[in-house]
Design brief:
This protein has helices at residues 6-29, 39-42, 57-78, 91-97, 109-121, 141-153, 164-181, 194-209, 213-216, 235-243, 264-276, 299-308, 330-333, 367-372, 406-439, 472-492, 520-534; strands at 131-132, 187-191, 225-230, 251-254, 280-287, 312-316, 342-345, 358-362, 445-447, 455-460, 496-500, 508-512. The protein has 540 residues and is α/β, with parallel strands linked by helices. It contains 17 helices and twelve strands. It has three domains: 3-115, no CATH class; 156-402, Aspartate Aminotransferase, domain 2; 413-534, Aspartate Aminotransferase, domain 1 (Alpha-Beta Complex), CATH 3.90.1150. A seven-stranded mixed β-sheet has the order 2-8-7-6-5-3-4, sandwiched between helices. Strand 6 (312-316), helix 13 (330-333) and strand 7 (342-345) form a beta-alpha-beta unit. The structure holds pyridoxal-5'-phosphate. Pyridoxal-5'-phosphate binds at residues 135, 193-195, 234, 236, 287, 291, 316, 318-319, 346, 358.
């Protein structure tokens, strides 16, 4: 046996320590109880770790490692079909269960770790395979890793100076997205959500048509501006009219057909009507993937009308934009999108990028700077050592901007463009499967329309309403079933599907498959669980 030197002894201890850490980690990964915070660290306060104590690397690492364990446990539970989606409590009860008070005195690290656990315990698992409630579902693990890195880097996106790598990533990703739309050049930005992206489009359109507006305001516009959008559009479009001084009366709703698509002849009629009144039609919003029905407005026909009357064409593809990846589904839905002047496209919806990630694209290079620049001298000096065009801060109406790019860039690296295409095709295929399964059970389910996207609109029929003819009165009763059944889903915690009325019908269910976790068996579960929870519902 060789003689044990002091160095050798230390290295041996280190190996053991690493082994213990590894087995703790393995135990937590396999769910056999998460390692605990040692009391030496658990009893510390914020000012005993970094950045307050520079000799506290180990304590800081231990604390953060235990927080990460809590997060990993959550990721595991999100993907466990035996776990509930939520522990529903009424707000009053929830307030009693949680200790949310802010105190004068600091709390120790062990309490903060408990706070993290309690927070996730009552959080709805939006990435659970049985969560079909929202347009943003799922928990993409690579994108999550990106979000964690983003938080650690904690930088602002306004200058190249402080976000060099992320700024270059934005350029690469946004150019790629513009190319997919069908443009060789242009301008783009990431905005805090599709609603703000739509606002950016509106502002750019007004600037493009009336460049004097920026300095001279309303007096530079020869009449009352009017914008057009379908009656199925996202409400953020109407909000542009209110925010930007048109008034919502001047956001004109164009009627849609029975499947929720804008009727071009109606658009043209309304444009003419407003022109004749002396108004100034200047902006048309076409929706690619409406929020409720998932309908696609006919872009080529709308583009013809925009050209004829010299109006800006914006496409709100916040929801449906992801289908640009799919050779199979892109056409005819998004045919003509390259003729638009601007496009909103939210990766945080169909593409499953973590919230929040929204993009808006313009056909015209430099339009954002021209429209929004205020040239603040303290941030955007023109004598910097690098090309100031790499600073993005003056392109936006915000000052600081959150880093929403890294989680998308990393996800795209991981999947490849072909991986996104496969995801789109898969989500569509699952939705088609769901439609088939609904049609196979006409006594229990009523399909409202053939969907163009992953929105499946339907009613559930409890026993009481089976076998009687479908008419307006029955629709009212089916509408009442929705709220009751949704209540039961929340209480049981096993399933979440959204419902809403629209202007043609009372409440109906709108199911969304936009999570990569969903499989055919989850769709089967969804339908059988609705029936299990709902069959004895009785309505007036
Ligand atoms: C979701 C959605 C929006 C709004 O996007 P946010 O990111 O929620 O602000 C806009 N338009 C359409 C069609 C949408 O579906």
């Amino acid at each position: 046996m060789s003689k044990l030197t002091l160095d050798g002894f230390f290295s041996y201890c280190k190996q053991i320590a690493e082994h213990i850490q590894l087995s703790e980690r393995m135990a937590s990964i396999s769910g056999q109880g998460t390692p605990k915070l040692t009391s030496a660290v658990g009893n510390l306060y914020y000012d005993s770790i970094l950045p307050y104590r520079e000799d506290a690397n180990m304590q800081t690492r231990e604390f953060l490692a235990r927080v990460v364990d809590v997060l990993l446990d959550f990721v595991q539970k999100v993907n466990d079909r035996n776990e509930k989606i939520l522990e529903f409590k009424m707000p009053e009860e929830m307030q009693k269960l949680l200790d949310l008070e802010l105190h004068d005195e600091p709390l120790p690290l062990k309490q903060l770790l408990e706070d993290c656990k309690a927070t996730l315990k009552y959080q709805v698992k939006t990435g659970h395979p049985h969560f079909f409630n929202q347009l943003s579902c799922g928990l993409d693990v690579i994108s999550l890793a990106g979000e964690w890195l983003t938080a650690a880097a904690n930088t602002n996106m306004f200058t190249y100076e402080i976000a060099p790598v992320f700024i270059l990533m934005e350029n690469i990703v946004l150019e790629k997205m513009r190319n997919m739309i069908g443009w060789k050049t242009g301008d783009s930005i990431l905005a805090p959500g599709g609603s703000v992206s739509n606002l950016y489009a509106f502002l750019a359109a007004r600037h493009h048509k009336f460049p004097q507006y920026k300095e001279k305001g309303l007096t530079s516009i020869p009449g009352h501006l009017v914008m057009f959008t379908s009656d199925q559009c996202h409400y953020s479009v109407k909000s542009c009219a209110s925010v930007c001084g048109l008034g919502t009366d001047y956001c004109v709703c164009v009627p849609s057909d029975e499947r929720g698509r804008m009727i071009p002849a109606q658009l043209e009629r309304l444009v003419r009507y407003h022109k004749d009144k002396g108004h100034v039609p200047f902006f048309v919003n076409a929706t690619s993937g409406t929020t409720v029905l998932g309908a696609f407005d006919p872009l080529s026909e709308i583009a013809d009308i925009c050209e004829k009357y010299d109006m800006w064409m914006h496409v709100d593809a916040a929801w449906g934009g992801g289908l640009l990846f799919s050779k199979k589904y892109r056409h005819p839905r998004l045919t003509g999108i390259e003729r638009a002047d601007s496009v909103t496209w939210n990766p945080h919806k169909l593409m499953g990028t973590l919230l929040q990630c929204s993009t808006v694209h313009f056909k015209y290079e430099g339009i954002l700077l021209s429209c929004n620049a205020m040239s603040a001298e303290y941030l955007f000096m023109t004598d910097k050592i690098y090309d100031p065009r790499f600073d993005t801060g003056d392109k936006v109406i915000q000052c600081g901007r959150h880093n929403d790019i890294f989680k998308l860039w990393l996800q795209w690296r991981g999947k490849g463009t072909s991986g996104f295409e496969r995801l789109m095709d898969r989500l569509m295929e699952l939705s088609e499967y769901m439609v088939r399964r609904i049609k196979e059970q006409p006594d229990k389910f009523y399909l409202i329309l053939e969907p163009e996207l992953v929105n499946v609109s339907f009613w559930y029929l409890p026993k009481q309403l089976r076998g009687i003819p479908h008419d307006a009165n029955k629709e009212i009763r089916l509408g009442k079933v929705c709220a009751k059944l949704k209540g039961r889903m929340m209480q049981s915690g096993t399933l979440m599907v959204g419902y809403q009325p629209d202007d043609r019908r009372p409440n109906f269910f709108r199911n969304i498959i936009s999570s990569a976790a969903v499989t055919e068996k989850d769709v089967d579960f969804l339908l059988s669980e609705m029936d299990r929870l709902g069959q004895d519902i009785v309505v007036e």
